[in-house]
Write a structure and sequence with these properties.
669 residues, alpha/beta, Rossmann fold, Immunoglobulin-like, 6-stranded mixed beta sheet, 4-stranded antiparallel beta sheet, 19% strand, globular, secreted
């Protein structure tokens, strides 16, 4: 479109109604603000397992299938850009309100699953908008407001490249330029997050192509003025304006649910369960004659009415001041004081914020337990409302089901809550076989009860989606095996996380200009624990099974036909790692074999190198008594004069869980 035509269209002052102009918009007529689930205002969606739950599965094939299912559903709904998958937040702030949207606190695991998701979404013809670029690690002060600017992320180049540079623009300000479109050569479109445009021409100069949901105060008629007076350089394309006004008009309901993905929904719900304690073979259940169920997260919420819009019930916010949260969701926000961080009004299938789901069909844990009990003639007792329920000592087993909630717009008040811990201890003090299940949005500390001798099993079930209850019961009764591994590290105490526990708040001379200083560098999650010799409660990559696996026949081979330069070009195939995994138990299942590398220190500028870093994983099915070979390629992707091939001795480890003694080898370059 020529400038005259462009200005004529701008002068109509109907920028929000622009549709498919080749120059002004990039065919975003049907883009709507949705994260990795259908938006809360859309009817008849599928409630998919959340990112953190899929991350706990460590399953590439499942992640690809989920991407295809979600992409196809969005496309059928008329949405041509899916706002996800999520690479930021990357889990730096462990109490971050949106960590559940991402896959893991490790950039390698997250990167692999993000890649599979993008392949799935775009393989069915939709566009994936990987977000948030970049350093979007806290919700507190994510937007300017009340005279306080959005938080500024201060981060060194090495940390940026190794941890966070994983593409939707984030809310945070950032102190570096030229990464995405210059150094990385990204040629795709860059869209702002909703109302995250904090400047006018400067955002276009920085590479933003589209402002969502509209230009707001920075564009509208001001864009026309900027083009006329030359403030907007001719070399820059005019930014697109998304979401035409007709989205406010009534639309027909489109049922985009696809029954062919039912198995993906179920498998996705099952595979993200992480069993972290199981003593005296408490699980699977041995067809108990009497089963008692306690906890507020066992039943369905009392309301599922999408016409209520942004309601406390739908957002799962019954546990705190909803009005205060609502104000924070659209502007300046922080953790709401005095809240418990749990949802007392029913089980969690998804989470709060723009990725919340108006559920079309859900099966709660209680629903599924009743269904199974009717088959097995199991008597049931339950109490979902009392914090100190009456406990019948005649029961064979006892289930306590709680949750840990979070949402976009606010960071979590803590990593545990007194109400749930007191409930667990109350039941366990009277019952010798108490299994605890958490529907958790991320890290949930368990020190208050984990060592109690009557707490015989603990499961981190995360956010499972609409097949929640069915999946949990299949694991409790041994029809499915818990094969998930933790995609984060569970500490013993909140203080173990150091500066990464809480979001940075405005203070001192920066009271109006909040700063987030990434002083920990690359030492995030398990790297932090290794570096500071802190013993966690449960390690990154940890997870129990109903069977046992053994590792052997370990080999590290170097490709002798390769020559290496300090600044190599392209892909460097250095060698390979092989190991055999044997199923020594009585249950067939999949095992996650993990490759960790200890990199040699470069010695430049006194850089410290993490003790180990995840650099490969394979999830393989192994029958009873069978042995399978796992193979990992050791390679380095380098860009000339930017990435350097470190020379020295590499420590190579292969293991199946955080507590396993690894197979250890060495490789010298």
């Amino acid at each position: 479109m020529h400038e005259a035509e462009e200005l004529e269209q701008l002068e109509s002052e109907e920028l929000e109604e622009l549709e498919e102009s080749e120059f002004l918009c990039v065919s975003l007529k049907y883009s709507v603000p949705v994260a990795m689930a259908a938006h809360f205002s859309i009817l008849l969606p599928t409630t998919w397992p959340s990112g953190i739950h899929v991350g706990a599965s460590w399953n590439k094939g499942l992640t690809l299938a989920r991407g295809k299912g979600m992409g196809g559903e969005f496309r059928t709904k008329g949405v041509n850009i899916l706002l996800g998958p999520v690479v930021g937040p990357a889990g730096r702030v462990v109490s971050g309100g949106r960590n559940w949207e991402g896959f893991a606190s490790d950039p390698y695991l997250s990167g692999v699953l993000v890649s599979e998701t993008v392949k799935g979404v775009q393989g069915v013809g939709d566009i994936a908008s990987t977000k948030h670029f970049v350093d979007n690690e806290q919700e507190t002060n994510r937007n300017p407001g009340g005279g306080v600017e959005a938080v500024l992320s201060n981060i060194d180049n090495r940390t940026e490249l190794e941890i966070y540079l994983c593409i939707m623009c984030s809310f945070q300000r950032q102190d570096a330029n030229g990464l995405l479109k210059t150094k990385l050569g990204f040629r795709g479109g860059v869209v702002s997050d909703w109302r995250a445009q904090h400047a006018g021409v400067a955002t276009s100069e920085a590479g933003m192509d589209m402002a969502m949901p509209n230009g707001g105060d920075f564009w509208s008629s001001h864009l026309k003025d900027a083009i006329k007076n030359g403030t907007m350089p001719e070399s820059l394309p005019s930014p697109g304006i998304g979401m035409p006004k007709d989205l406010t008009k009534p639309h027909r309901i489109v049922d985009a649910r696809n029954s062919s993905f039912k198995s993906t929904l179920f498998d996705g719900a099952v595979k993200g369960h992480v069993l972290v304690k199981n003593i005296r073979n408490a699980l699977p259940l041995k067809t108990p004659k009497l089963l008692s169920i306690y906890g507020y997260s066992a039943k369905n919420p009392d309301e599922n009415n999408p016409t209520d819009g942004l309601s406390p019930w739908l957002m799962g916010s019954g546990s705190f001041d909803y009005q205060e949260f609502g104000a924070g969701f659209f502007g300046w926000s922080g953790a709401t004081p005095g809240t418990t961080g749990i949802v007392l009004n029913g089980t969690l299938y998804s989470r709060g914020g723009s990725g919340a789901t108006s559920h079309s069909l859900t099966i709660s844990p209680y629903d599924a337990i009743v269904h199974q009990a009717s088959k097995d003639d199991i008597a049931l007792f339950w109490d979902f409302h009392n914090g100190k329920p009456a406990v019948d000592p005649a029961s064979t087993a006892y289930l306590v089901i709680g949750n840990a909630w979070a949402a976009e717009g606010a960071d979590r008040p803590g990593l545990r809550d007194d109400y749930t811990d007191d409930l667990i201890l109350h039941v366990a003090s009277q019952c010798s076989n108490t299994a605890v299940i958490f529907h958790n949005v991320g890290i949930r500390l368990v020190e208050e009860s984990i060592d109690h001798p009557n707490v015989t099993a603990v499961i981190f079930a995360h956010l499972l989606g609409q097949a929640s209850g069915k999946a949990l019961v299949s694991i409790l009764h041994g029809k499915e095996n818990p094969s998930g591994k933790l995609p984060y590290t569970v500490a013993r105490n909140e203080s173990d996380y150091g500066v990464m526990l809480r979001p940075d708040e405005p203070e001192g001379i920066f009271k109006k200009l909040p700063q987030s200083n990434f002083t920990e560098g690359v030492f995030v999650d398990y790297r932090h624990f290794d570096e500071n010799k802190i013993k966690p409660r449960f390690e990154f990559g940890f997870g129990l099974s109903y069977t046992t696996f053994g590792y052997g026949n370990f080999a590290v081979e170097k490709d002798g036909n390769k020559s290496f330069e300090e600044f190599p070009k392209g892909k460097i195939a250095e060698g390979g790692v092989e190991a055999e995994v044997e199923n020594k138990g009585e249950v067939e299942d999949k095992e996650v074999a993990q490759l960790h590398l200890g990199l040699p220190s470069t010695g430049r500028d006194g850089e410290r190198v993490p003790v180990r870093q995840l650099r490969g994983f394979e999830k393989v099915f192994i029958g009873v008594g069978e042995t399978k070979k796992v193979v990992f390629e050791l390679s380095v992707w380098d860009v000339r004069a930017m990435w350097r091939l470190g020379r020295g001795e590499y420590k190579v480890e292969v293991k199946g869980s955080g507590r396993d003694l690894p197979l250890v080898g060495k490789l010298t370059i």
